[in-house]
Design brief:
This protein is of the alpha+beta class. The protein is built from 26 helices and 22 strands. The strands form seven sheets. It has a five-stranded mixed sheet, sandwiched between helices. Strands 13, 14, 15 and 16 form a four-stranded antiparallel sheet that branches. A four-stranded mixed sheet has the order 20-19-21-22, sandwiched between helices.
C-alpha cells in the first residue's frame, strides 16, 4: 500500500515527485521548511540529487522508503529534498561545504545543517544502516553537545565566505595571450591525454566538450596537428563506443571504463547540445562524414524523444528502466536475431554482440570498432550497401525498442540547457545547411522568449504551462550565447536585441563591481547563506567564462567597447591560472584563442546573405563575427553604417582591430583577406 503523499506532490521537478510518496516527511526548499527548523529548533537534512542519478535512486530505495529510517528522520530533523538541476544555487553552496569538510562531492549529496542553515556535516551516498546510525548519533550530539556543532558550522562558514577570487588571487595581469601561450596550455593538457583510446587518461570518462573545442582552436591558431589528432581520436572513439546510442542517437553522460564502452546510461540535454556543436565544428575542420552522421542522428533523437509541441527541450532521460540500469538500451542475442532475421549476423559483427553478452550476462551494448569503409571492405560490401543495411536495421531495432518500458523522462525544461541545445542546432545548421535544424532552433528560441521570459529577465524552469524559479547566471549566459549565434545565421536583429537585453539585465543584477566577475544568483532572488561565483569550467562551461565570451562577441558585433573591456578584464584576471591549470578553465582558454589574432568582423550586404554566410562556415574559422543586412540603411548597427551594395552584387566588408579592408563581391575573396591577416 503506497504511503500518503508528502509536500513534494505539488513540485514541478520529476526528481522531487519521485520522492512524493516516501514515508519521509519531505519539504521542498523554501520558507515553510526553514521556518519550521527555526521554530522547532531542529537540525535540517538537505538531500540533493537529480532524476537521472542512479545512486540517488538506490539511496531512496534503501533509506527513504524505509519506514524505520523515515521515523528517525521525521522525529529528529526537518527534511528537505532539492533537485540540483532546478536549484543549482542551493547545490553549489552545500557542495562547497562538503568540499570544505575534506570530502569528495557527488550525488546524492546529503548535508546536515543547524536550524539557521549553516552546515556542520555532510556526505554523498550512505548505506541504510550507516545512514540510520549517523542520524541517531547526530541527534544525540545536537541535544547534548550543541556547542561543538556550532563551532564546526562556524569554521565551514568561514570557508564558504571566502570567494574564489580571493582564494585564488584572481587579479588582472592583462589578457595579452600569444600563440606560444596556447601551445603551453596544450602541452599541459596533453600530459593527461589517453593517446590510445581518446579523452583524458582515467576512468570514468566524461565527454568534456569544451576541452576538444579548445584543441580545435589551438589547431586553427598554431596549425598544431597533434591537437587535431587528439580531437579526431576522441570524437571517433566516443562515436563508436557504448557512450553513444548506436541505435537511436544521442550521447549518455559518461563512460564507466576507459574504452568509452560501458556507459552510465542517462542522457542529458546539456551534454548533447554541446556535443552537437563540437561534432559540427569538427566536421568543418576535417570533413569527416562520421561527424555529420552523429550530428544528424543525435538531432533526430532530440526531435523524437526530447522536444515538446511548443518547441522546448526536456532535460534528461533516466539511466534505469524497470529498476535496471541500461535495460532499455541493451540486447540479448536472441532478441537481436528475432528483430533482424537474415541481416542479424552482419549486424552482430557490426555492433560487436556476443551470444553470452558483451557487458553483463545476456546483455549486449552495441558498439563499433571499425569505420564503415573498413567494415564494408572486410565483408565484401560497397559502402552504400552497408550504410543502407545499417540504416534499415537501426529502424527495425528502434521500432522494437519502443515496445519496451521506457526510462523515466525528466520533463522539466531548463532555460540554460535549452540555450546549449539551441546553440548546437545553430552550429549544425551552419555546418550542414539543413533547413530543419534552423526551424527547430527558431521554434526553440521563440519558445524561450514566449514562455521563459520574466519581464526583462528569465525563468530557470518551465513545466506544465508554468514557468518558475528565477534564472541563474548559467541560464542567462547560455541563452545569450545561443541568441548571439542565431543572429549570425539569420541576421534577424530580433535575436541580437534579445541578447543585448539579457546582457544588460545580467550586468545590472549579477555583476560584482568590486571583484569584476558575475555572481551565480540574481540580486533580487532568495538570499542563501553564501552568494557564490562560478569561475571554473566543468562538464558545462562555467557561467563566468560563458558570460565573458558573450560580452566579447556582443561587444564586437554591436561596437560596444564597455562589453569588450569587461570580457578582456575578466580573462586577464584568470590568465595566470589558465596558464597553469587549463584543464579547469578550458572555456576561458577558448576565449584566449581569440586574443592571439584579430577577430574578423565580416559585414555582408545583399539579398542572399543567409546563403552566402555558409561560405564562412565551410571551413573551421572560429575567430569571427558575422553581421548582415539586405540593404544599406536598414540597420542601426555601427558595423553596417555606410555599408552599401557595390556593383549590384552582395558585398563583403572585412575589418580587423578597427581597420577595414577594401570591400569585395565574393565570399572567397573575403575569406582570403581573413587568411592574409592570420
Amino acid at each position: 500500500m503506497p504511503h500518503q503523499a508528502n509536500r513534494l506532490i505539488n513540485s514541478s521537478s520529476p526528481y522531487l515527485l519521485q520522492h512524493a510518496y516516501n514515508p519521509v516527511d519531505w519539504f521542498p526548499w523554501g520558507e515553510e521548511a526553514l521556518e519550521k527548523a527555526k521554530k522547532e529548533d531542529k537540525p535540517i537534512i538537505v538531500s540533493i540529487g537529480y532524476s537521472a542519478c542512479h545512486w540517488c535512486h538506490v539511496m531512496e530505495r534503501e533509506s527513504f522508503e524505509n519506514e524505520k529510517i523515515a521515523e528517525i528522520m521525521n522525529a529528529h530533523f526537518v527534511c528537505i529534498k532539492v533537485d540540483r538541476e532546478e536549484r543549482p544555487d542551493v547545490d553549489q553552496v552545500y557542495m562547497d561545504a562538503v568540499h570544505a569538510m575534506g570530502l569528495q562531492g557527488g550525488w546524492p549529496l546529503n548535508a546536515i545543517l543547524l536550524p539557521d542553515q549553516r552546515p556542520f556535516y555532510g556526505g554523498t551516498y550512505f548505506p541504510a544502516q550507516g545512514w540510520a546510525n549517523l542520524l541517531l548519533q547526530i541527534a544525540k550530539v545536537f541535544k547534548e553537545q550543541r556547542a561543538e556543532l556550532e563551532k564546526s558550522a562556524e569554521g565551514f562558514m568561514n570557508s564558504l565566505s571566502v570567494s574564489d577570487i580571493q582564494k585564488y588571487g584572481l587579479n588582472s595581469i592583462g589578457a595579452d595571450f600569444s600563440k606560444e601561450d596556447l601551445s603551453q596550455m596544450f602541452k599541459i593538457l596533453s600530459q593527461n591525454f589517453d593517446k590510445k583510446k581518446g579523452g583524458m587518461n582515467k576512468a570514468p570518462k566524461f565527454p568534456m566538450p569544451v576541452i576538444y573545442s579548445f584543441l580545435l582552436r589551438e589547431f586553427e591558431a598554431n596549425k598544431n596537428e597533434a591537437a587535431l589528432a587528439h580531437v579526431k581520436l576522441t570524437l571517433n572513439k566516443m562515436a563508436f563506443g557504448g557512450l553513444y546510442d548506436q541505435i537511436g542517437g544521442g550521447f549518455t553522460r559518461y563512460s564507466t571504463d576507459a574504452d568509452w564502452f560501458a556507459p552510465h546510461f542517462e542522457k542529458m540535454l546539456y551534454d548533447n547540445g554541446q556535443l552537437v556543436s563540437l561534432y559540427s565544428e569538427a566536421f568543418q575542420a576535417t570533413k569527416d562524414p562520421l561527424y555529420k552522421e552523429i550530428v544528424f542522428q543525435t538531432i533526430e533523437w532530440l526531435q523524437r524523444e526530447m522536444t515538446t509541441e511548443e518547441g522546448g527541450f526536456y532535460s534528461a532521460l533516466d539511466a534505469d528502466s524497470e529498476g535496471e540500469e541500461g535495460k532499455f538500451y541493451c540486447w540479448t542475442a536472441s532478441e537481436f536475431r528475432e528483430v533482424l532475421g537474415p541481416d542479424a549476423e552482419l549486424m552482430f559483427a557490426y555492433y560487436n554482440l556476443t551470444e553470452k553478452g558483451n557487458w553483463e550476462p545476456q546483455k549486449n551494448i552495441p558498439h563499433r570498432n571499425l569505420t564503415d569503409s573498413e567494415f564494408a571492405k572486410a565483408h565484401d560490401l560497397s559502402l552504400e550497401e552497408l550504410q543502407d543495411l545499417v540504416k534499415a536495421a537501426n529502424l527495425k531495432l528502434l521500432k522494437q525498442r519502443e515496445t519496451k518500458v521506457r526510462p523515466g523522462l525528466d520533463d522539466k525544461i531548463l532555460s540554460g540547457w535549452n540555450g546549449l541545445m539551441l546553440k548546437g542546432l545553430v552550429d549544425a545548421y551552419a555546418s550542414f545547411q539543413a533547413p530543419e535544424f534552423l526551424q527547430m532552433a527558431i521554434k526553440n528560441a521563440e519558445f524561450i522568449c514566449a514562455k521563459m521570459k520574466n519581464g526583462k529577465g528569465l525563468f530557470r524552469n518551465y513545466k506544465g504551462g508554468k514557468a518558475s524559479i528565477d534564472a541563474y547566471l548559467e541560464d542567462y549566459a547560455a541563452v545569450t550565447q545561443a541568441f548571439n549565434a542565431l543572429y549570425q545565421v539569420t541576421f534577424d536583429e530580433k535575436w541580437l536585441n534579445e541578447a543585448v537585453q539579457l546582457t544588460e539585465y545580467t550586468i545590472e543584477h549579477f555583476y560584482d563591481e568590486e571583484e569584476r566577475f558575475f555572481f551565480f544568483t540574481n540580486d533580487e532572488s532568495e538570499k542563501l547563506i553564501a552568494r557564490k561565483k562560478e569561475i571554473f569550467d566543468n562538464v558545462i562551461p562555467g557561467s563566468n567564462s560563458l558570460m565573458a565570451q558573450n560580452l566579447y562577441t556582443l561587444g564586437t558585433i554591436t561596437s560596444n567597447q564597455t562589453y569588450t573591456d569587461m570580457a578582456i578584464e575578466m580573462l586577464g584576471r584568470v590568465k595566470k591560472m589558465v596558464m597553469v591549470e587549463p584543464q579547469y578553465l578550458t572555456n576561458w582558454a577558448c576565449l584566449a584563442t581569440q586574443m592571439v589574432t584579430p577577430t574578423a568582423e565580416i559585414v555582408m550586404v545583399g539579398d542572399d546573405i543567409q546563403r552566402q554566410a555558409f561560405s564562412f562556415f565551410d571551413q573551421f574559422m572560429p575567430n569571427k563575427v558575422l553581421v548582415g543586412a539586405e540593404n544599406e540603411g536598414t540597420s542601426k548597427l555601427a558595423l553596417l553604417a555606410n555599408r552599401g551594395i557595390l556593383n549590384d552584387e552582395t558585398t563583403f566588408y572585412v575589418c580587423f582591430n578597427k581597420a577595414c579592408q577594401l570591400p569585395v563581391n565574393s565570399a572567397n575573396d573575403a575569406i582570403n583577406l581573413i587568411q592574409d591577416i592570420k
